[in-house]
Recover the amino acids of this structure.
């Protein structure tokens, strides 16, 4: 397995610190607003990566933090709870939007809490952050100034190695605010002195609260140890957040993360998503319009995680059609096996599957995922399975062709569950898709196929439109015409 390491800017063979174990830390949500589809992409990317490691028999320790102490949360608390105590109102805002995040991830079928995920909150780690800061001060990598504590970046080794920037270039764009008392424009706050109207905690440097960067260094090393396998997040976090995490951790004597993974950002029709632009799409908005979580997942999987992804109606419609094709195939396969295949016959097919005659599809899938989690290539394997199996089902001579029947069994009963387990796809058939096609619709499809064969395309189009009005969508593929119900 090879993974692109943002630190070295190249793909590297993955070598875990502990055999068959993976420690992963991912920067999670700052809970001050409704979760949007950009949050969903980040969560889903690392969910698929975690699932694939588990599929490869690794024991995964997965940590995703929750930032529940932050300027944005404080500002939202002042907006929503103007007359309440700031400590209580901040807690209410954080609880409200963390609950919304959990609900959104649950509806998408993405693990957000429970036995597979450790999700520490910043507010739970204040004391350990203070202890970490004391270590940095003792090692002379941090200094107190005016009630604040800053990290001294001149004491950091190779500061800028993740973002590939020189200190001179970074300093050119850095500024010291009038309220700051730091030595160097690039020095960053580890502890911020208390301000009126903000929550605060006691500390050796006076009342205040931790800076943002310190929480991830503390949580990750506390749970995963001083060195761990993977640290992940969005490209926008490389600088300054992840760069500062490295500086803090290494200054405290930690080896920190071996591999850094960063995903591209999401845009809406080529623009950054923002409420001011009217293109802010929450997970709830998406599901109200498109219903099925698979559609968003197909959209995310269609682009490699390191690349940016642009949300457009056209691309979502493609994802919707792909989901319908998958569910149509599952509906037809389940119906076929229940009507035509006995328990004895299915046992025979299962036994023959051990010969792995058709398991090359699984190898194609694994080869794609082993290549830096190349989901578009892995997804192509799934689409190929869908198209081939729909073709197999349509063949009238299926029962007399043992190879076709074995292929159908192997791909749907062995290979497809493996792909589903990694991608977290929902294969349950919606009620509106259930059942077989009515005989009158089958007849119309046969009439249309005949018309197309005879070159009578006007009649063929007329039948297509008639079927579409009745909720039956036809798709002409190189293997023939397939149908699906409109959902």
């Amino acid at each position: 397995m090879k993974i692109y390491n943002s630190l070295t800017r190249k793909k590297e063979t993955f070598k875990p610190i502990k055999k068959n174990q993976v420690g992963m830390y991912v920067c999670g949500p700052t809970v001050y607003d409704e979760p949007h589809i950009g949050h969903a992409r980040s969560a889903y990317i690392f969910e698929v990566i975690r699932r694939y490691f588990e599929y490869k028999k690794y024991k995964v320790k997965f940590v995703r933090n929750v930032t529940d102490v932050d300027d944005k949360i404080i500002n939202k608390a002042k907006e929503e709870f103007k007359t309440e105590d700031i400590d209580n109102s901040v807690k209410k805002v954080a609880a409200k939007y963390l609950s919304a995040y959990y609900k959104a991830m649950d509806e998408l079928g993405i693990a957000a809490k429970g036995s597979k995920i450790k999700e520490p909150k910043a507010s739970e780690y204040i004391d350990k952050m203070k202890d970490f800061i004391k270590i940095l001060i003792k090692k002379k990598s941090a200094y107190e100034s005016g009630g604040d504590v800053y990290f001294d970046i001149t004491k950091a080794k190779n500061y800028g190695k993740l973002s590939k920037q020189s200190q001179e270039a970074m300093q050119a764009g850095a500024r010291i605010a009038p309220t700051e008392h730091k030595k160097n424009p690039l020095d960053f706050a580890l502890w911020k002195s208390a301000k009126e109207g903000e929550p605060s905690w006691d500390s050796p440097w006076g009342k205040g609260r931790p800076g943002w960067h310190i929480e991830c260094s503390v949580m990750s090393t506390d749970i995963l140890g001083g060195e761990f396998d993977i640290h992940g997040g969005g490209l926008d976090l490389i600088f300054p957040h992840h760069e500062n995490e490295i500086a803090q951790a290494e200054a405290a004597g930690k080896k920190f993360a071996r591999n850094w993974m960063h995903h591209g950002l999401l845009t809406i029709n080529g623009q950054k998503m923002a409420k001011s632009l009217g293109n802010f799409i929450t997970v709830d908005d998406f599901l109200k319009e498109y219903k099925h979580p698979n559609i968003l997942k197909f959209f995310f999987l269609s682009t490699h995680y390191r690349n940016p992804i642009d949300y457009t109606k056209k691309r979502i419609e493609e994802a919707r059609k792909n989901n319908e094709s998958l569910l149509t195939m599952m509906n037809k396969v389940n119906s076929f096996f229940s009507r035509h295949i006995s328990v004895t016959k299915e046992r025979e097919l299962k036994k023959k599957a051990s010969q792995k005659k058709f398991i090359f599809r699984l190898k194609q899938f694994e080869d794609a995922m082993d290549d830096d989690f190349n989901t578009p290539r892995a997804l192509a394997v799934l689409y190929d399975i869908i198209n081939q199996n729909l073709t197999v089902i349509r063949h009238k001579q299926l029962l007399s062709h043992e190879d076709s029947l074995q292929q159908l069994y192997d791909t749907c009963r062995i290979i497809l569950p493996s792909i589903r387990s990694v991608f977290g796809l929902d294969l349950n058939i919606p009620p509106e898709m259930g059942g077989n096609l009515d005989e009158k619709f089958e007849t119309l499809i046969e009439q249309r196929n005949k018309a197309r064969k005879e070159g009578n395309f006007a009649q063929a189009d007329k039948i297509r439109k008639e079927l579409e009005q009745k909720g039956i969508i036809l798709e002409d593929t190189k293997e023939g015409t397939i149908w699906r119900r409109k959902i």
Q: What stands out?
A: The longest strand covers residues 227-234. Residues 313-340 form the longest helix (28 residues).
